[in-house]
Fold this sequence. Notes:
4 copies of one chain form a homotetramer. Chain A folds into 2 domains: 2-68, Arc Repressor Mutant, subunit A (Orthogonal Bundle); 74-212, Tetracycline Repressor, domain 2. The first copy, chain A, is built from 10 helices and no strands. Chain A has helices at 18-38, 45-52, 56-62, 66-89, 97-114, 116-121, 123-127, 129-151, 161-181, 189-212. The radius of gyration of chain A is 19 Å and the shape is elongated. Chain B binds a DNA duplex (21 and 21 nucleotides) through residues 13, 17, 19-20, 23, 44-46, 54-58, 60-61, 64-66.
Amino acid sequence: MATGLEPSFKPRKQPVQARSEATVSALCQASIQVLLAVGYRRLTTTRVAERAGVSVGTLYQYFPNREALIASVIERYLEGINASVAQNCRALSGRPLGEVASGLVDAFIAAKWERIDVSRALHEPLGDIRGARIVAAAAAKAAGVVAGILENCPDASFHDVQTSARFVVLACSSLLQAAVADHTNSLDPEGLRVHMRSMALGYLRETRRLQETAKVVPPL
Amino acid sequence: MATGLEPSFKPRKQPVQARSEATVSALCQASIQVLLAVGYRRLTTTRVAERAGVSVGTLYQYFPNREALIASVIERYLEGINASVAQNCRALSGRPLGEVASGLVDAFIAAKWERIDVSRALHEPLGDIRGARIVAAAAAKAAGVVAGILENCPDASFHDVQTSARFVVLACSSLLQAAVADHTNSLDPEGLRVHMRSMALGYLRETRRLQETAKVVPPL
Amino acid sequence: MATGLEPSFKPRKQPVQARSEATVSALCQASIQVLLAVGYRRLTTTRVAERAGVSVGTLYQYFPNREALIASVIERYLEGINASVAQNCRALSGRPLGEVASGLVDAFIAAKWERIDVSRALHEPLGDIRGARIVAAAAAKAAGVVAGILENCPDASFHDVQTSARFVVLACSSLLQAAVADHTNSLDPEGLRVHMRSMALGYLRETRRLQETAKVVPPL
Amino acid sequence: MATGLEPSFKPRKQPVQARSEATVSALCQASIQVLLAVGYRRLTTTRVAERAGVSVGTLYQYFPNREALIASVIERYLEGINASVAQNCRALSGRPLGEVASGLVDAFIAAKWERIDVSRALHEPLGDIRGARIVAAAAAKAAGVVAGILENCPDASFHDVQTSARFVVLACSSLLQAAVADHTNSLDPEGLRVHMRSMALGYLRETRRLQETAKVVPPL
DNA sequence: CATGAATGAGTCTTCATTCAT
DNA sequence: GATGAATGAAGACTCATTCAT
């Protein structure tokens, strides 16, 4: 997952011991709370450490710098999202396209809304350069899962499942990201769900149809 | 456009003189260059002023603070995007759904890629809280234009054009936003274009079809 | 009055013309309004000029710098205070000590309270080094007036009227200065008046008595 | 003492360790030195920190802002003054009015002149709004001590000792404050002492006499 | 291992003053 | 004479990071 990261952002020490893992976890959760409380720009290492009940020094024992901390928080969050999506998609394998489209959308919405406050809190960090890379990596992983499901779809075949899967994942995640960031709350999840289902289904149908009529769809 | 902004972010001084307008413009362009050069986090008012060839004091004569400067840059950028989209969509009125879908996608891509470096530079600022509001306002405006086109579509009618238009705009802009941010460049605009066209067309067809079969589509 | 000031603080140009004097006056009044509105620390030359309805440049045509402006304002204020005191004391010449003491106190209180908001506004400027000198000069002038009255007092004679007068002036002005600064408003002028009268009368009686018993009172 | 202060001016960190207390103390002393060297307006947090031999950051670890630092310095100074006054007044309890008056004046003069340079240095800060409040609080405390002494005076009784005590304290402190600020040095402490004694004694006699003749003296 | 005081470079922002128009 | 845009030095305050205890 952290493949794209430069060496300096790898956690300083591997938390082999239980206590270490507990500390790291506390630090990550504290980060989210601080994010929620004061926002990204005012998240300071001292504040995070305080909230986690440890000293700044300890924080720096586990993370080489602020960015590594944030990266870790993002990674854990995205892992959670991915796990949730994978979990909710499991039953979709072998189902017809209509169900798959709806199910995928539902899975993404559920994953994102499961901890909506965290999703909102992480919106900014996710948007910065560092975050974008981690997001890309996570998206690739999710695309793999989705590709697997599409491949098993009885009533549809795709020329380039990988690419279609990637596009669906990209569309869903970016749409939800935008929705979550919208502080005017003009988007309620239920309305969004219906339209996203239409979008997912429509896209997959179009893609399939194009393939059936032998038109070449270039990869992303 | 700037309706949602608090008064404290309004420009401090109206640039009535030609020289003033030139200064403001220089400042905004310098901001983009700084953004490109060092990123959002390290954009400082001093650096921007330097790059614009004026003193910090001058910057503060036109903008009450850093955020107002950024907000201005974003507004100008989004106005440009919207103008470009509107311009490129003009010929779409009265055309069949397939053309409309493709045309809309092309318009958005063209607008975003027209000054791809600026788009990339502004990705981060666009993502923070302040930026999100301006984006929302601009999106609403664009949705109006799109709604107008959809209404004139001869081969499709929508139960709630406004909502569908908003969704299309949201989908296109968030997708492109994500694409632009992807520094791995795995997404080339041409591949993206085909898939986005499929998505737009598919979504609009689904939405229309759903309406024809009398299913109620809730608003966003 | 401005004897103790260094040359650089003398007004830059003598306002010989009526218009000039009007401008200077407007500037001084504007200063007081700004002082009232935002306090000493945030009084800026630009703000004063704005309030006076002229440009900063014009301000600098009449005052070499900010301090000179403030000094002018203080001088005008103290001249007003002194004029008021002198005016209110006029009838005291030739009256018995009791009346003189009361009358002096009343005159000082009246002068200070006449424009209580201005008195309060000028409290801080009066307290800084620059202000202290101007205050000292004004106090000396007032002491001269008081000395004249004490000399004409039928029922009391003083060994060193000058010194006694200076002390009374110092006591009254410093007491009122402190009273005016007290934002808790625990001191109402009426209560203060009674006690200050007692103080003035008591002091003058003690001083007189000491002199009668031939004790030498050193000058201040 | 600091009761009237808003929370934001409370010291940021309680100096529990010996080293911390030393740092705070060094910072306060450095402030006075800076005040003496460059005056109130040009006292900067950086300069103070430099003088104290620590970094600005350290200063801000103990004081939330410049004003809090100044407030602390003032508080420490006034505590010293009050302690000194209280100390020097101790022997006055039970003594006749004449001795009490003289003793009080002497105590105030001694306290103020004990560290005359500090007194002078703090003149300006004492005069600004923030300072005035702390002064008021300290004055109230001193008035309590003086009231206790006046109550035990065998040859005088007062209708409202509290008020009389407050007035004496106010008179003495404001007079000395003015005297200290006078850079022309026209006031030597010895001359001042004699006149202040007359004033204190005269006032107290007048106040007492008024009460004996049943005249009502309003409270301050 | 943990702590948290100390560091100081780096930010934003203000404002007295000048000078070309 | 008047104007007000431009200047830039200076100040308050923050915060990632280190290191002695």
